[in-house]
Design goal:
Layout (H helix, E strand, L loop, with lengths): L3 H6 L5 E8 L8 E3 L1 E5 L2 E2 L11 E5 L1 H9 L7 H4 L3 E4 L10 E4 L2 E8 L5 H6 L3 H5 L5 E7 L1 E4 L3 E4 L4
Parallel strand pairs: 5-6
Antiparallel strand pairs: 1-2, 1-6, 1-11, 3-4, 3-10, 5-9, 7-8, 7-11, 8-9
């Protein structure tokens, strides 16, 4: 019989980056880009800083869930103000593990809680709709350029 550690370590398939956004300043509009350099302080051109919240990630499959909680279709990722939207791999299963995103290596450090501005951005109930679906924060372990369509998977040796 297979052990729990082996099942936890395995993913069904690699994922992919489907959207990249930069927040040039704290309240500035998000700029969608096709690629970005991941430096030690996060994505270059983003206002993030080094440490456990350098890069923010969001599960693409949750865009529809959040929209459904609000009574409409999938939400626009730019409204959520996260850096990377990733599809086809469960990010919550990768918490505390090295994650290869293209050539960069990140470590998901914990949930990215919604902020109070989500109520204004998404309408009444926006904050509540994102609870449990706010995405993830990550620290940078290895720098590289990341582009839309890049593969996302557990890092080798992770």
């Amino acid at each position: 019989m297979e052990g729990m550690a082996e099942m936890i370590a395995r993913v069904a398939q690699p994922g992919r980056v489907v959207w990249i956004g930069l927040r040039p300043a704290r309240l500035a509009p998000v700029v969608e880009v096709a690629k970005a350099m991941v430096g030690t302080a996060g994505l270059e051109g983003d206002h993030a800083r080094p440490g456990p919240r350098a890069v923010t990630l969001f599960q693409a499959e949750h865009l529809a869930a959040v929209g459904g909680f609000l009574g409409h279709g999938p939400v626009d990722p730019a409204v959520l103000r996260r850096n990377l939207v990733v599809a086809a791999i469960n990010l919550s299963a990768l918490k505390d593990r090295p994650l290869a995103v293209g050539g960069a290596v990140l470590r998901i450090t914990g949930p990215c809680a919604p902020c109070s501005r989500m109520e204004a951005a998404l309408g009444p109930g926006g904050y509540a709709a994102l609870r449990g679906h706010g995405g993830w924060c990550a620290e940078v372990l290895g720098t590289s350029e990341v582009a839309v369509t890049d593969v996302v998977q557990p890092a080798v040796g992770g």
